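thought: fold this chain, then report.
action: predict
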Amino acid sequence: MINIRIETDNLILRPFLVSDAKDAQYYSQQPKVSYWMSDMVLHNESEAISWVNWINEKYNPKEPFIILAIEHKADHKCIGVVGVHAKAELNNEVEILYAISDSYQGNGYATEASKALIQWVFKNTELKDLTAIVKPENIPSKAVVEKLGFKCVDTRVIPYDGHMCKFDYYKLYSSKL
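observation:
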């Protein structure tokens, strides 16, 4: 059983529920989310339910593999995803990921959710650093990682969605918080 719940002013970070599958499918297909995270588009409810079950089965705070739903407190609705996991294309460095439904973007929710998860991860795991990769033209996402304290240290070209893609490569160290 996954026993994690993180509350912020506006959000609740918690395990995905099967009942979140429709919301996850919906936000994953929205234009901005699907453009920047084309490898995470859920095409139908069955695929979304399988994805929810898969991430919950894979949950492991020691590895860490933590992918959580972002619930908007006022709406009681799943509006996105936030997580950390080892990324094979980056020599298994632990990457932060986040996505917010298009209609909720521009309110600071990606930053709010990511900041809360980063604090939890550095406090509750042995992890000492996190990686973020962002496509250079994704200005809003670059702003989020920079607000979180990540520093751009390099550019990486890695396989993504069937092609080799250039990403800005960021690092955040727990000692810098």
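thought: worth noting. The chain has a mean pLDDT of 92.
final: tokens above.
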